[in-house]
Amino acid sequence: MTEPQDAEASEAAPLPEAAARSSLRQLVGEDFSVADSIGGWRGVAESMAPGVVFLAVFVATRDLVPALVASLAVALTATVLRLVQRTPVTQAVGGLLGVLVGVVWAWQSGRAEDYFAMGLWTNAAYLVALLVALALRWPVVGVVVALLRGHDMSWRTDPRQRARRSRYTVATWLWVGMFALRLVVQVPLYLDAEVAWLGTARIAMGLPLWGLTLWLTWLLVREPASAEAR
Predict the structure, then answer these.
(1) Fewer CB within 10 Å, N or C, the chain?
(2) What is the mean pLDDT of residues 80-88?
(3) Half-sphere exposure for 205 (CA within 13 Å, toward CB)
(4) Residue 116 in contact with residue 199, Cβ under 8 Å?
(5) What is the rounded CA–CA span in Å between residue 192 and residue 171?
(6) What is the pTM of this model?
């Protein structure tokens, strides 16, 4: 997640297809679309439905197995539908793999809260990676934006780009805050086995919080109208 270079800089070099199609491409756009940032309404449904179904079935039955089966069935159905319709399956497959890991962990442990454990570990890993990058003075937002725009990394050392470097750093701290907030709220719920509250927090702090953070990042990293404003 990095920021742009000068307006005179060259056009963005081709990126891998997955990166080009990801919501991160919004960071280098002239406008910001909330719908695109969260994968569109279909992406929202595919991302949230397995967790919502798991939570609803478990709360209603207090039985782990039906909740796991229902959640996996929803994720699998979303992937099959995309395959049948020959639409991009990246997000659906990613969601299916995440659900599958959660199902396996919860089934093996017999604890419903373990359905959400992978998300906690993932957030912790991202948090550590971002903090290490900041300590090394490689703010990840700046790196991503530069790659998306096909620019070099001169913003890190060029005194004339100090303002840009500061904006990249602040934007990276935004993501640190997002991952940290998720952990601060959700880890105690996980440790206390508060499955209903944990699931609710995961849903509320998932795509909605991601979209908000991405929008705030876009506000920070977009290039001002004039060089003097930077």
Answers:
(1) C
(2) 81
(3) 22
(4) yes
(5) 33
(6) 0.82
